[in-house]
Specification:
Largest sheet of chain A: 9 strands, mixed
Structural class of chain B: alpha+beta
Structural class of chain A: alpha+beta
Strand content of chain A: 15-25%
Radius of gyration of chain B: 37 Å
Number of domains of chain B: 5
Order of helices and strands of chain A: HEHEEHEEEEEEHHHHHH
Largest sheet of chain B: 7 strands, mixed
Helix content of chain B: 40-55%
Distance between the termini of chain A: 53 Å
Shape of chain B: extended
Radius of gyration of chain A: 21 Å
Shape of chain A: globular
Oligomer: heterodimer
Strand content of chain B: 5-15%
Number of helices of chain A: 9
Number of strands of chain B: 18
Largest interface: A-B, 42 and 47 residues
Number of strands of chain A: 9
Chain lengths: 311, 801
């Protein structure tokens, strides 16, 4: 048996896999967001007729899921691996299964299932049909055919794959806690560049210890959970929400859908923080979600208009 | 005759949609055949997650030839008419046939090859397929009208006999090629036709028949449990769902950490079932241990001992016998259960009383306040039901125990106060006489328990557990209440107060539970009706019909004697109390804020804002009579639906309801049953006929009798039959009235039965419309008396037949 992939090698493997199949390998969007779908490479590129194939890792922030580092499965910050293929290719399921095989899942010993799970994002005005993909009963991927985005029919439809990287890694590495995951690995063997380069690589390896996911992120989880739940200044957050909403509209008024969309993302994250602080009542909650949706839809509409695409 | 095979292979079809999809395929296919005049020997459908298939046996190779005759103009008609007919039919004059001076066109339609019919049918079926949700996909979805299917369609196999039926559906061309099991047999398979479909796929690890897959799961899961010394907890819903998720089902058993058994068994079962689609098992009771309540479960233990085992259904026969699959599933379940245990432990730390306070943050309905407001009304109503002796510690009351009804003879509670709404105390003081006697202390105890249980019954809505598993509402509250030391009867009431849910569900029997359950439903029905949200047609967003059926079940099971409309009005009165309190609070707040800001005189004027209260109350009072009428009709309709199964005739229920004023449903049903028995007898049927004859004459003559006119002494010597009917009425009327008063409805019917012979004889021998106006008047008055006597028991005009 070969050594299971470390967290970072799993990402490198997925990058290689999707790059070999014609995807752009993008970097994360540099803003706080609740899901990879918020990345403009997904949301805005899912609109309009132009083909688009891309893959990227997106850090996700879900303040209410924070557990101060005490729950082995829940994090307020984690990573999604997103693949967006437009139009959805006819063999998308086969392509996806190929990627699972690439990261070491053996289909003769594991049970892979496509279980109905229709995806909806109330804050993006988006929905699609698809499945959650189960591996031995664990949901490892959300597999969606987008039908609408920002309130607009997707023409054509995109296929979106969202891998839960930590879950997959826990699975592949057979770990019960996310914090025990091997983040890196200790490769051996030659690197390119001759004897000198090899000696330098050896030296570096000798000084690079093995890191676990906990070594990298446990303290972040503790501090961020405390801040999300207890510390964040709610007056300031309410104020920020208003300002992001206003700035979104300001940008829309100036015909700038991308900055407008960024402000919608900021408003969405600010709302999530307010939720974690427990200062939004049940009745208000729907109103806030509606507000964010209006902003996101406004940006999507402006994007459609800017590109001259009919609804 | 040849067979036809159709397979529509797609990406995974949701399990819950497969059974209906088979039915729809069968139905649409049959319709297409019928339209072409074809009929198959038999049609079978199959479904797996990846395919929907149909086999039609013994189809004729072509449709039958039809000869159609079209009538044309007369042979003598002008040439324009003939030309028009020839154009229409495409024939020449020589081809027409003449019969009796009329021209006919005979058009022979030769038979069409069945393959052509099938080729046309397939795209039609796909286009018309009623999936609950369908989607677009791929490059074709650039167009708005691109094909739709439940998930992307991958291949179509259509073979008639040995030949491929060439069609193109949603961009897919038909062929003889399909795929087997995704992992056991990844390559393509070529099918010969209907004859080898099932077995060829089985050889490629696909069992196309869902019933066969279900049987495998059912049998194998039970075996696995038995081999482990356990009993499978059967769940047909799960069997069907797992059959819809697999093409090659392989049940596997695993164990989870015994420590999780601290969590209530229902929670474990629900987590396993809903999130993971696993079966669970119980430890079989050994002799004498079967009824032992589970430790920690308190008053609400189910008695079943859950085992720390789960059975999952894999879609593959794994090369390691499933060891890795079981291990993976065990981990997932452990993560789920530790979440559930976390919620359980967290929730237990907070008393339900504290949780209940958070209910004032949840809006129940924008016009009916918060859930806390609802709870407050339910608590008051539950207490009232006990204090009035409607729900007692000894329900059910035997049906023969006839006693006077609390509040008998009083009208419904009306809100009459000009300045204050009735407080619940004021309302219960309407019947002070009931709060006396030996049973007072135990009644007060029961009332206090009912109120307490009601105040806590919705508290679990804000717990973490219900947030995660809404299905556990009620049940989990019962656990928490028991664990937190609430009275066992209150804990039981919290657990079961949603019951009965739907017809056939268990009806609560414990008095506290009955009071809370009934109060909850009466409040829901009443308040929604009073704000005008009554159900109409298929619209019943607040499930008021279901609530009404539950009320009926509770009333009947326990023979609960009370005036329903009065209780419903009281529920609304409690809501009005809340509204007035809100208004008074609001205006007090305004005054407080303005104190010192404006002068005293202006402040006094502001106080008149409170003058709104009586105005609002008056309008509520005005709306009451219409609400009463609609509520009565609503319950009459529900009663008819509910009693249909028991064989009670709906027209008889109408006949009793039509008398008006009767809202004690126990008494009403007793009367309906007596009436049904009576109209089934010969006397009853004849009396009904006599009544109808009398009523018809009165209607035809437009006769309205003056009060007591039928009893006036006569100015002439009556016919013997006329005199006999008068005598019969003199004797039957008071007897029927007394029997009705005593709720002896069989007796009332017996009294009416004595009228049958005299009425028949009267109609036989006596002329009503006598030329002598005095006789005519007296006889019409006599018929009116007959009608009125019958109406004391029921409105016979509503009875059919």
């Amino acid at each position: 048996m070969t050594e299971p992939l470390s967290f970072q090698r799993m990402i490198l493997t997925l990058h290689q896999y999707w790059s070999d199949r014609g995807c752009l390998i993008l970097q994360p969007y540099d803003m706080e967001m609740g899901a990879g779908t918020f990345h403009t490479a997904t949301t805005l590129r899912a609109l309009g007729p132009d083909p688009w194939n891309a893959a990227f890792v997106q850090p996700c922030r879900r303040p209410t899921d924070g557990r101060y580092g005490e729950n082995p499965n829940r994090l307020q910050h984690y990573y999604q691996y997103q693949v967006i293929l437009k139009p959805s290719p006819p063999d998308l399921q086969e392509l996806y299964l190929g990627s699972l095989a690439a990261i070491g899942i053996d289909f003769t010993r594991h049970d892979i299932r496509f279980v109905e799970d229709d995806w909806e994002s109330p804050t993006l005005g988006a929905w699609g049909l698809g499945w959650e993909v189960w591996c031995d009963g664990m949901e490892v991927t959300q597999f969606t055919y987008f039908q609408q985005m920002g309130g607009f029919d997707c023409k054509p439809v995109s296929g979106e794959l969202t891998y839960g990287l930590e879950r997959l890694a826990m699975y592949i590495q057979n770990k019960d806690s996310v914090y025990d995951l091997a983040f890196n690995d200790r490769p051996s063997g030659a690197v390119e560049g001759g004897a000198l380069a090899n000696r330098a690589a050896e030296d570096l390896r000798a000084h690079s210890p093995q890191f676990s996911y906990g070594d990298v992120f446990l303290e972040n989880e503790r501090q961020m959970s405390a801040w999300n739940f207890e510390v964040a200044d709610t007056d300031s957050l309410f104020d920020q929400f208003r300002k992001h909403a206003a700035e979104c509209e300001n940008s829309l008024g100036r015909g700038l859908p991308i900055p407008a969309y960024e402000q919608a993302i900021k408003a969405s994250h600010t709302f999530n923080l307010l939720q974690a602080r427990g200062v939004i009542s049940v009745a208000e909650r729907q109103a806030y979600i509606g507000r964010v949706r209006d902003l996101a839809k406004g940006a999507c509409q402006a994007w459609m208009e800017k590109n001259g695409w009919a609804a | 005759m040849p067979d036809f095979l159709l397979e529509l292979r797609s990406e995974e079809i949701p399990a819950r949609m497969q059974a209906k999809a088979r039915d729809d395929l069968q139905r649409l296919f049959a319709a297409e055949l019928a339209a072409a005049g074809l009929q198959a020997g038999s049609v079978t459908t199959y479904a797996t997650p990846r395919r929907l298939a149909l086999i039609a046996r013994d189809l004729p190779p072509e449709t039958a030839a039809v000869s159609e005759e079209i009538k044309g103009p007369r042979s003598s008609a002008p040439p324009q008419a003939l030309d028009g007919f020839l154009r229409k039919t495409g024939l020449t004059r020589e081809q027409l046939v003449e019969r009796d001076g009329v021209l006919f066109a005979v058009i022979d339609k030769p038979g069409r090859p069945t393959a052509h019919v099938l080729a046309a049918a397939i795209p039609t079926i796909v286009r018309a397929f009623p999936w609950p949700k369908s989607m677009r996909w791929g490059a074709a979805s650039l167009a708005t009208d691109s094909p739709r299917w439940v998930r992307p369609l991958q291949s179509v196999v259509a073979i008639f006999g040995e030949e491929i039926v060439p069609v193109e559906v949603a961009g897919v061309r038909s062929s003889a090629t399909t795929l087997g099991h995704r992992f056991h047999h990844p390559g393509p398979i070529t099918l010969g036709g209907a004859h080898d479909y099932v077995e060829k796929l089985r050889a490629c690890h696909v069992i196309v028949d869902p019933d066969e897959r279900a049987a495998i799961i059912r049998t194998r899961a039970a075996e696995l449990a038995r081999d482990a010394g356990l009993e499978l907890i059967e769940d047909e819903g799960l069997v069907a769902e797992n059959a819809g998720l697999t093409e090659w089902p392989v049940p596997l058993i695993g164990r989870f950490d015994e420590a999780f058994l601290e969590v209530p068994p229902e929670v474990i079962q629900l987590t396993a079932r809903v999130n993971q689609k696993y079966f669970v098992c119980r430890v079989p009771p050994r002799n004498g241990e079967g009824d032992q309540p589970r430790a920690g479960g308190g008053a609400v233990a189910t008695g079943a001992t859950l085992a720390n085992a789960f059975i999952c259904t894999a879609n593959i026969a794994a090369t390691d016998g499933g060891a890795k699959i079981v291990e993976g599933n065990r981990k997932v379940l452990a993560a789920r259960l530790s979440d559930a245990r976390f919620f359980y432990e967290q929730d237990l730390k907070v008393p339900l009383e504290e949780q209940a306070k958070k209910l004032d943050k949840i809006v129940f309905h924008e016009k009916l306040g918060t859930v806390a407001d609802k709870v407050d009304r339910v608590a008051k109503l539950a207490r009232w039901l006990v204090e009035e002796g409607i729900v007692t510690g000894s329900n059910p009351v035997p049906a023969t125990n006839v006693r006077s009804l609390p509040g008998e003879g009083r009208g419904p509670v009306t809100v009459t106060s000009q300045s204050e709404a009735p407080t619940p105390q004021a309302v219960s003081e309407l019947d002070p006489g009931l709060r006396r006697g030996r049973a007072e202390s135990s009644r007060e105890e029961l009332a206090a328990l009912a109120e307490r249980a009601a105040r806590l019954c919705k508290a679990d809505l804000v717990t973490g557990m219900v947030g995660e598993f809404p299905e556990l509402q009620g049940l989990i509250g019962g656990y928490y209440a028991a664990a937190q030391g609430e009275h066992p009867a209150a804990a039981e009431a919290i657990r079961d107060h949603y019951k009965p849910v739907g017809q056939g569900d268990e009806v609560p029997t414990a008095p506290v539970t009955v009071a809370v359950s009934l109060a909850d439903k009466l409040d829901t029905i009443s308040t929604f009706f009073f704000i005008g949200e009554s159900p109409s047609g298929s619209r019943d967003p607040f499930a008021l019909r279901r609530s009404a059926l539950a009320v009926l079940a509770l009333i009947q099971q326990h023979q609960l004697r009370f005036k329903l409309i009065k209780a419903l009005t009281l529920a609304w009165a409690f809501r009005i109390v809340q509204i007035t309190e809100n208004m008074n609070e609001a205006s007090d707040r305004v005054k407080d804020e303005l104190k010192g800001v404006v002068d005293e005189v202006s402040l006094e004027k502001i106080a008149t804002v409170q003058g709104i209260v009586p105005v609002v109350l008056a309008s509520f009072t005005n709306s009451q009579s219409t609400a009463h009428a609609t509520l009565a009709t609503f319950f009459a309709d529900r009663l008819k639906v509910q009693q249909r199964e028991a064989g009670v005739r709906h027209d008889l229920i109408d006949a009793v309801f039509a008398l008006g004023g009767e809202d004690d449903l126990v008494r009403l049903l007793a009367r309906v049953r007596a009436l049904q028995a009576f109209v089934g007898t010969e006397d009853g049927a004849n009396l009904l006929a006599g009544y109808k004859r009398a009523a018809n004459i009165l209607k035809k003559e437009g006769w309205t009798a003056a009060e007591g006119a039928g009893e006036k002494s006569l100015s002439y010597t009556p016919e013997p039959e006329e005199a006999a009917l008068r005598h019969a009425l003199d004797s039957a009327e008071p007897r029927a009235a007394a029997a009705v008063e005593a709720e002896e409805f069989e007796g009332a019917m017996a009294a009416l039965a004595t009228l049958r012979a005299p009425i028949d004889a009267f109609f036989d021998k006596v002329t009503v419309n006598d030329p002598d106006p005095a006789k005519r008047e007296a006889r019409l008055n006599l018929l009116a008396r007959v009608r009125d006597a019958v109406h004391r028991v029921a409105d016979f005009s509503r009875i059919e037949g």
